[in-house]
Each structure stands twice: as structure tokens, then as C-alpha cells.
Amino acid sequence: MLEAVMLWNEPNNLSHWDFHLDPDWSRFAAMAKCAAEAVRRENPELKIVLGGISPIDANFIELLGSHSVLDAVDVVAVHGFPLDWNHWSIHQWPEKIEEIRRVAQRPVWATEVGVSSFGAEEVQLFGLQRSVELLRSVERVHWYSLFDLPATWTATTRHKEAEGSAYYRHYYMGLLKEDGTPKLSAAHFPPGMGICQWFHFRDHRLQPAVAWLREHGVRYLRTGISWADWFREGAEDWFDEQMAALDEFEVTLTLCFTPEHLGVAPHYTSPPKRIEDFAEFATWAVRRYAPARRELSVQAGVE
């Protein structure tokens, strides 16, 4: 069941939005507002979440507010990795949340909270337990992630090996190793916390993920479907398979990644040439996976 739709992912991160092509984020703002309007038309009850920001930057939220983006969403999301990439202490989590709450005047969700086991599994376990303590005031917290990124896959970052050892931390964020072996943190995953797990096209980890989430009583899941993948052969079949498998969870569905042929530049981080194209994808996704209740009632012959 869809709990929410998230519009984009980390729009202030060059790895997900090319702000060299959109230096004042006006294109992003127009795209997000257009998509939010489309989602509201399809299902007014569905929560709309602003794509989780990384880094956590109140000035960026103020900028989007000046573009009226905040008026179009119900929730603002943040992503934080203070033991791996951020320039602040893990103990500052409450302060970071409050900074965004003050500016956004909206509920704040932490939709990616993570610590790698790159140095030691004990470090990840400490990070998990301390994050739980520090984020008790946050309605929705998703741990990133369930599985380690497979070693043969490329991490979604523009910087890659130029990051030095920081790049390889992307491969150690899971509670489970690539082969499904649990790490120390897996046995201490707390009740009530959600998981963020991305599934790639035809991802072999889908059913093992569902089994683990079910076994451990996880209720909240954040994942995504790729706008760019929508144009691949068999994409809708794969999306249907993924969403059917995840139907028992309360899902926040992220919509992102520009198809190369629709971008200002031929890259998944590019602003689209037409903002309406992303809204069309959002309309399709909500109509297919979270239709309004009245529409369901009419289909069932109930008034």
C-alpha cells in the first residue's frame, strides 16, 4: 500500500540533480509543483513528500519556499550520514531536524539514515542505536539500507573513485551483506523503524528483501521506481511485480531519474525539457499503484 509519493531524490545533491543546468532550482521547483498538482488530482489523500535533501541545508529549503514548493507538499524529508559523509556529528541529529522544521513549517521525515560497516560492523551498530535514540521525535525514519550494494554495481554518485575511500562506503550500508549474511546491526534492528531499499531493474533481491522485512515485522518501506526505466522494454511489468510484492508494507514511493532523451542534457540528473513529462509519469504511477478510494468504490459498484 502506498503511504506517500516522494518527488525526486536529493535535489540539492549533484549526483541526483544537475544544478549546473538549474542554478537557482527554478526548473526543479516548477517540475515538483507540476507533479504535485498531478498527484493531488489523482489521489488527494496521498501524502506528497519533497525529495529527501542531502546535505541537510535549511537555506535550500528556504530557497524552495521562495519558489512556493513547500505549499505543494505535505512533508519535507532529509537524509543524513554523519559517520560517513556529512560534516557534522551524529549527536547533532536533533538540531538538524529542528533547523528544517523551523524553516519548512511541515512535518520532517528522515527517509535515509545510515552508517556504513566500512571500518567495522561495531561502528554501524553504534550508529544504528544512537540514531534511534536521537530521532525519537521524527514520525518516519527509514534506515538506509537493507542490503549492501553488490560489488559489481556502480554507486549512484557523480564522483565515483574521485571520492577516495568515501566512495567505497556506498557498498557497506546494508544490515545484510551482498549475499544476505546478517551483520551485527541486523539483530538489533528496532521495532517501528522503516527501511529504505532501492530495487534496480529486474533486481534479484526483491523477494529476499520482502521475506526479511516480513520476518522482522518491518511496516514502513521507502523505495522508488525510475522514470528513466519507464522507457525500457518490460518496465511496466517489472514495476507491477515490484509493487505487488511490496503491497503488504506502507510504502513511500520515490519518483526520479530523467530519461536521457527527455533531459536538457542526456543524463538522469538533468532537468527535463518539459516539466509536464515528469507530471505524466507521476500521474501514471499514482493511478496504477494508489488510485483514489472513490475510483476504487466505483469500480466495485459501491457508491
Structure summary, number of beta strands? 8
CATH fold field value: TIM Barrel
Helix fraction? 25-40%
Morphology: globular
* Largest sheet: number of strands, sense, barrel closure: 8 strands, parallel, barrel
Structural class per helix/strand content?
Answer: alpha/beta
Poorly predicted segments: none
Q: Architecture, CATH level 2? A: Alpha-Beta Barrel
CATH class: Alpha Beta
Return the average pLDDT rounded to an integer. 94
**Through-space gap between termini:** 22 Å
Number of helices: 9
Brief descriptors of the model:
303 residues; alpha/beta; 8 strands
Task: Describe it.
- The two termini are 22 Å apart.
- The chain has one domain: Alpha-Beta Barrel (TIM Barrel), CATH 3.20.20.
- α5 links the parallel β5 (141-144) and β6 (194-196).
- It is of the alpha/beta class and 303 residues long.
- It has helices at residues 26-42, 58-66, 93-104, 121-134, 165-168, 206-215, 235-245, 275-289, 293-299, and strands spanning 2-7, 47-53, 75-80, 108-113, 141-144, 194-196, 220-226, 250-256.
Q: Topology, pairings included?
A:
Blueprint: E1 2-7, H1 26-42, E2 47-53, H2 58-66, E3 75-80, H3 93-104, E4 108-113, H4 121-134, E5 141-144, H5 165-168, E6 194-196, H6 206-215, E7 220-226, H7 235-245, E8 250-256, H8 275-289, H9 293-299
Parallel strand pairs: 1-2, 1-8, 2-3, 3-4, 4-5, 5-6, 6-7, 7-8
Helix pairs in contact: 1-8, 2-3
